[in-house]
């Protein structure tokens, strides 16, 4: 009886240890290669001597679109996730970073979380749609966002709707281009 307990205590953990190694090898060999992208592909090229306008920034992205998966719609309005293509970060973070860079390139100072004591206007961006449709050999990206410029006294100064699209063979680049167009439009409308 004592021999059975020793056998159970020694042999079973040893077998489990060996199986664990086999499972890890198999899992690693089955995983597909992932390619990671960023919505923020803006290059800093500011030639400004100083920043003329200072703003706070709040970016919101609706939950289906604020994940690391890239969504593809088909003609039947069915949604699937693009395999092997992922965002490196959440879209709201990448959009915020791109917006700050585009602002700097347009001589604007944009702060993520300014203190209330600064008494500056805030740009509020709400991304309501950010998806792709496949048109044969190309992917067409769609961006739909609403922006508001709110004064430090919480009164709305300006608002607008921006819809952009872009085509590219690479789905992530199509979304980058569409988002860059949208951000530049908001900056132009606010300036």
Explain the layout of strands and helices.
Blueprint: H1 2-30, E1 35-37, E2 53-61, E3 69-73, E4 79-87, H2 91-105, E5 108-111, E6 121-135, E7 138-150, E8 156-168, H3 171-190
Parallel strand pairs: 1-4, 2-5, 2-6, 3-6
Antiparallel strand pairs: 3-4, 6-7, 7-8
Tell me what the structure shows.
The protein is of the alpha/beta class and about 190 residues long. The protein has three helices and eight strands; from the N terminus they run αββββαββββα. It has helices spanning about 1-30, 90-105, 170-190; strands at about 35, 55-60, 70-75, 80-85, 110, 120-135, 140-150, 155-170. Strands 1, 2, 3, 4, 5, 6, 7 and 8 form an eight-stranded mixed beta sheet that branches. The N and C termini lie far apart (about 85 Å). The model has no long low-confidence stretch (mean pLDDT about 85).
Labels describing this entry:
191 residues, 37% strand, 3 helices, alpha/beta, eight-stranded mixed beta sheet, extended, single chain
What's the short version?
The protein is an alpha/beta fold and 191 residues long. It has 3 helices and 8 strands.
Overall pLDDT metric: 85
User: What's the number of extended β-strand segments?
Assistant: 8
String of helices and strands:
HEEEEHEEEEH
β-strand percent reads 35-45%
CA radius of gyration is 24 Å
């Amino acid at each position: 009886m004592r021999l059975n307990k020793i056998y159970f205590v020694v042999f079973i953990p040893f077998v489990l240890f060996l199986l664990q190694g086999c499972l890890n090898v198999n899992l690693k060999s089955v995983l597909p290669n992932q390619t990671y992208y960023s919505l923020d592909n803006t290059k800093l090229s500011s030639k400004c001597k100083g920043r003329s306008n200072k703003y706070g920034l709040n970016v919101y992205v609706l939950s289906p679109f604020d994940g690391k998966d890239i969504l593809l719609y088909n003609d039947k309005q069915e949604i699937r996730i693009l395999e092997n293509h992922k965002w490196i970060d959440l879209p709201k973070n990448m959009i915020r970073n791109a917006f700050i860079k585009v602002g700097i390139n347009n001589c604007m100072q944009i702060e993520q979380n300014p203190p209330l004591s600064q008494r500056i206007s805030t740009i509020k961006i709400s991304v309501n749609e950010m998806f792709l449709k496949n048109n044969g050999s190309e992917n067409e990206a769609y961006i739909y966002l609403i922006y508001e410029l709110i004064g430090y006294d919480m009164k709305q100064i300006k608002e607008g709707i921006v819809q952009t699209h872009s085509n590219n063979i690479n789905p992530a680049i199509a979304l980058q281009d569409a988002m860059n167009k949208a951000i530049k439009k908001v900056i132009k409308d606010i300036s």
